[in-house]
Design a protein that fits this description.
alpha/beta, TIM Barrel
């Protein structure tokens, strides 16, 4: 199976540029970056070429979400800002060729109903899907648990499903993060079986603790085998905080699946 590292969180004792090289040295076959915009497209092209790794995923700019704010995608008063965020990302999409473009839904906005925020999210996602229709990408909107991220608008896969039914776009898919789903109490084996035709991208960390495999309760390798048996062809992405000096022996069994 194809294994990638989220270098926004992993190898966090190294400068961002050095994390690309570290991922390659450890045997990861790709990387994802939550927000690549602090480096230029040319800088990323040079780093990726030197490491001979593809960039798998980027997030659209999310406004103030990472600082605890509401974000852009579901805010009824920030539609223009959301559209500007997509325009900002286009050079990165065109030149770096990530296969997954993720949109952070954001938090329910004070003074607006949940339905109003969901309607705005669906409208923005539909517009983004149409805007990116000629690119070889899948747009996702990752469910994120609302315990770590209070008031997050799309905390469960069932919430994602409701949004997907509203927008009905062929280039919209499910990014499933095992840690977030487990935090919400979902049964991962059931989710995989139910959503296999929608699955565009998988991120993983163990639960609880959001650490590397075998630090929590999840039988991650069994889940990876289930995905393989069901024909999943996307990426598996390790997404948790780590240092470059940590033990990465857990990588080899995944490559063997």
């Amino acid at each position: 199976m194809k294994l990638a590292a989220n270098i926004s969180l992993m190898f966090n004792d190294l400068p961002l540029q050095a994390r690309v090289k570290k991922a390659a040295e450890l045997g990861f076959q790709g990387i994802e970056v939550q927000f690549p915009y602090e480096l230029t497209v040319k800088e990323w092209q040079a780093l990726l070429a030197k490491a001979n790794l593809p960039l798998v995923l980027i997030n659209l700019p999310a406004g103030n979400f990472m600082q605890g704010g509401d974000g852009l995608a579901c805010h009824p008063l920030r539609q223009a800002e959301f559209q500007h965020a997509l325009q900002k990302s286009l050079p990165y999409i065109e030149k770096l060729k990530p296969s997954i473009i993720n949109v952070l839904a954001g938090r329910q906005v004070a003074g607006f109903s949940r339905q109003a925020c969901l309607d705005q999210l669906a409208a923005n996602l539909s517009w983004a899907c149409k805007t990116l229709a000629d690119f070889p990408v899948t747009l996702t909107c990752e469910p994120i648990n609302n315990l770590d991220q209070p008031n997050y608008l799309v905390p469960r896969t069932a919430d994602w499903q409701a949004v997907a039914q509203k927008i009905q776009q062929p280039n919209f898919g499910l990014q499933l993060d095992f840690y977030h789903a487990a935090t919400m109490g979902d049964l991962l084996e059931v989710l995989i079986s139910q959503q296999i035709n929608n699955l565009a991208h998988i991120q993983f960390a163990d639960y609880p603790g959001r650490g590397h495999p075998a630090t929590g309760q999840l039988q991650l390798n069994a889940l990876f085998k289930q995905l393989n048996q069901l024909g999943y062809k996307g990426w598996l992405v390790a997404e948790f905080a780590s240092r470059s000096t940590d033990n990465y022996d857990w990588i080899l069994p995944i490559h063997a699946i």
